[in-house]
Input
Amino acid sequence: MKRRTFLKAGLVASSAAANCVRTDREAPKGTLRVGAGSDRYNTAPGRFTLTTSRPNAHVGEPPARPNNRFEARPWLFESWTHEGEGAYVAHLRPGVLFHDGTAFTADTFITSARQFIATRDFIGLDPASLRRVDDGSVRFRSKTGSALMVDNMTHPSACLFLPRDQAGRKPIGTGPYRMVRYEPQRVLEVERFDGYWGGQSKQPRVMYRFLADPQTRLLALRASEVDIVSDVVPEMLLSIEKNDPGVTVLRSRPIRYAALFCNLHGAPPFHTLRDLRVRRALALAIDREALARVMYMGQAVPARGVLPGWMFNLGDEFPRGFGMDTAQATRLLDDAGWTRGADGMRARDGQRLRLRMVSAFPNASSVKPMPEMLAQMFSTIGVATEIVEVEDEQVYYSAYADRGQADLFLELAGNANADPTFLLYNAFHTATPWPSYRFHAPGAEVDARLDAARHGTVREEIVAHVREAHRLIVDKHVAVVPLLSVPAFVLTRPGVAINMFENVDWIDFGDATIGA
Amino acid sequence: MIKTQALPPNPSLIWGLRLAALLLLVALLSPSLTPHDAYAINLDRRLEAPSFEYPFGTDRLGRCVLSRTVLGTRASLGLALLASAGATVAALALSVVAVFGGRSGDRAVRLLIDVFISFPSLVLALAFVGIAGPSAFAAVTAIVWAWWPSEARVMRSLLDSARHRNFVDAAFLAGVHPVRVVVRHILPQVGPALAVRTSLEMSSVIVALSTLSFLGLGLQPPHPEWGTMLNEAWPFVGTAPHLLFGPGLALIASVLAFNLIAEGLRVRVDSRQLQEW
Amino acid sequence: MRGRLGRRLLWTLTTIALMSMVAFLLVAIAPGDPVVAELRFMGVPATPNTVEALRREFDLDAPLPVRYARWIVRLSRLDLGESIASGRPVAAELARALPWTLQLAFVSLVMIVALSLSTGLAAALHPYGRLTTFLRGLTIMAISIPVYWLALAAVGLGAVVLGWSTVVSDASLGGLLLPAFILSLAPGLAIGRVVRQRVIDERLEDHVRLAVALGRSPAQILIQDVGVVIGPSLVTMWATTFGYLLGGAVVVERIFDRPGLGNLALHAIAARDYPVLQAYLLCAGVAFVLVNAAADLLSAWLDPRLRRSRVDD
Output
């Protein structure tokens, strides 16, 4: 008898519990469903990214957004002027409303900027300097006197919200969509805001489903559970056929770099690459065409640098990069004193020429099987390679990158910032705030060039400095060996059209059109 | 003192031992047993179904699944053996302290055991790996950390009841050297039950270790290990289910072997107190 | 009974207190730096200023005993700190995830009870027949198959037959059945064997033979004579599976995409989110302790003989 009541109680309790948990698979009709990756939103003040980053639900908006050349274009700022030494005057766009009807004016901008922009270290806004000029204009200063502060404000983390919502549960912004529902790790739902200054978006509702596992996202797409997959990892492409009927692959211009960062300041046994000749030899031994054929559905292109030429108007002349010239590579290694042994591998003074390659940032799966292909190419010129695969980002940094415990570091990453100096400064300046990159800093010559860029006042001047620094870093010092330039990808169901952009965070999925 | 008599036929034990011996052999000889290079990537032959050339098919990078399974025996069983041995040694050490360390020693060890045993084993192991970062070393240490309490609890009570038998007390009183007492009087009592326990522990550790690897928290790529292979097979479970066969079969065989051994030994020992599944 | 309750309570509280120490220490001695990791993820340069500020915010700069004391004080207010990865209070994250895992554990437990009783009793009725042999073989196979392999195979089969999306990520009660069944199979069958053995042994006891002689119905005998004796130990065994369920839930939640405690822990591991891991460990441990304590008391209540004996055995 006790057993029976136990069972009955159990059934009652479990059905009660089941009702507490909502089913979110049913979306109202007319909802665009987007499959995003794991929910990494942060609601802590100062690190607030709810609805702004991965995915960007366009609830809040930044002062400026990147244009086609990744230059800052007006958004919530209608225009701005850099008056010199980090002082700015900006004119706010008129007719902008927050979702609760509050007008976007100088006062609301200032309170919002204090909470959401001044807290971002990399932007460097001095909160005490925010001043109201009139209802539609403001003044502010950069803490470092930078001429590029508004360019840095094109980052999703610079999106503005009403500071009223301290708990971070329902951010109120000025964007085309307002937040309806957020279940952490499950779903984010937004609906169209009719008072939006930019007019009405096409899709009335958008639902972002957080599906942590990449293959689950892909399968959800194939099953028409989602219309778009915004977070595409390269290994998903392995499962997509050339003319796959169920999945359309959209790609942008090449923006990400796949490159080998060289350890220029390693302690033994990772000091081999201190020799420029060895670095150059490695760069010349690589068949980039072969890599491009095999990787990423053949959608990548051989790279000459780490920044694409279309960005910031950099152009295609700098740097020259490296083609494939195994004869030259062999000569360089011979000159450096590395002689081939009977097995074809090189040695010098009893030491074998053996390099450690750590694959990869962000994880090994994203670049497979490039390490093996590279190792093969290096062995043809007599260099042995030890491949260390790392799937976990923290381990990559703590065990290898931060301590310079390897010769080559394979990375697949991109510069998503409209500040032209962002990537090169942080990756190649000796005073870089990213500790693991100090092993790749070539030295004073590059530092001087990057400093000049950062302190420039006119954009063309800054870009010229960046061009030159890029050339020095790649061509002259070979601090990094460029491999491929990789596009950003978005997957859709057939018949869904969107405006593709290099940084997925700036694609407005709400403007998608769903065809037949 | 210990009478030997004709024992009834014990198929579980026999088959268990045979299977375990086979696996051990495979582990030792694995590099010579692989038909293809277990690390060789072949992008033109990805996700192929089992064929004559690739008896278990190929994985998402075109590697031979059979070769990887065979080579993986070393990692999967080796690490499990290491972890199991570690847990047993730790448990044994603490049990000895409890039994021979007087009342305070006993109390202290029992408290320690009770505190740690209150955590679910896999949860404790996960927390440890989560803190230490994923690696084979972390996984093994995590298992030792999480498995010793349950082992220690059984071992302590076995040693305790063995220690307090009349003839053991007599031996001590007679001035027999403690080590000799342990070897001649305590171990024979405890031995069989301990063997059952260790066998069960081994099978449980094999599963736990491969579970950690499956979750990406154990041996890191590209080294073949059954749990990691199943992790890589997961996305293709609907489209290329053959990927589950190789590592799955190996895992089941290993665990089965030790479960059979434990079952066979238990029939011999016929001890009611050990009825833990 | 009250004395036993009191003793058990004291013991439970002591255990929980010590467990909190273990949970705290585990995280406190961790290598690697969650602060730097988080800043790196945010794309914020890890300057000494930002690192110090974040470290202070997460209380990582004081000496160990001080941190433990602060932690305990906060714990007493049910403040488990904030998640480093999401900024949300850890207690809120746990509260969100807990119902999913409890649902799963609960349904699994029900299935374990049902499975063990049904197979055990059926086998006990024909102790040396073919059913017993079949069940014995099935049990050995079932406990030899790792839970996650079974889950993968089930999902694969389900995906092929029913389509992926109906198998994975289903929030309704129906979506619970498959994961719960997978979790309950091995322990259910294994405990079933114990049930069989106990029932067979108990059948030979005097009081059962008396009951048969008195002409009571089999069902009555089962419940009132056999059940009362073997009930307590069965309850204890069922309660012990709860620990296994908490562990197994991690894998099952990952494969079936259920946002329970297990998935939360896995996310926390990937992000090195120490506060969440700490809370998870403590939460799971405390839940297990409470379930075992409850089972202990339940079995004592069921068995008059045990009521008067001591707590430690």
Observations:
- Confidence is low (pLDDT under 50) at residues 271-277 of chain B.
